[in-house]
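INTERNAL AUDIT FORM
Audit reference: QA-55
Scope: verify that the stored structure record matches its stored sequence.
Auditor: D.O.
Record contents follow.
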Amino acid sequence: MKFDSVDDIYTTNTDIAAELESLVGKLPQEAAEHRPEGEKWSVAEIVEHLAMVEDGMSRICAKLIGKAEKNGEPSDGTISITSTFEERGVAIAKIKVEAPEMVQPTGERSISESFAMMAEANDRLEQIRPLFATFDGNKHRFPHPFFGDLSAIEWLVLVGQHKARHIAQIRRLLASN
């Protein structure tokens, strides 16, 4: 996926979030909590996982772009996505990945509660949006368990890619009901 600006990333992420909302926002509780045979998570648990992950990703983005702000490192407007990020993005689409324990769903959060948590993460991302125009979002890095060291820009892209991956999973679950 090619992005010409941070605004392109935010727009893509907003579109993906709207797709998720449209897909599960009005799903009856019984359907949301149903776990088809052989599946580890229900739709509600997938959405809970997304909320926990996005909360963490938004905090990582804020931390990384905050370092660039603190150091006075200006942005030149470049969106740098490493080839490693792109290659691992292709690779992860073909495999099943076990989520780390800290982002395993508990099954205790409703879809609406998870959407509220995602809204808080999105608010955090919106608050730092102007910083990406001013400060270098490519310089500082933080490790991801599969992708390796990612910049704030790559973490921001990953917010949407992760959600898109799970939208496909939800579509498969709903089709199997």
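Auditor finding: record pair retrieved intact. The domain at 6-176 is CATH 1.20.120.450 (Four Helix Bundle (Hemerythrin (Met), subunit A)).
Action required: none
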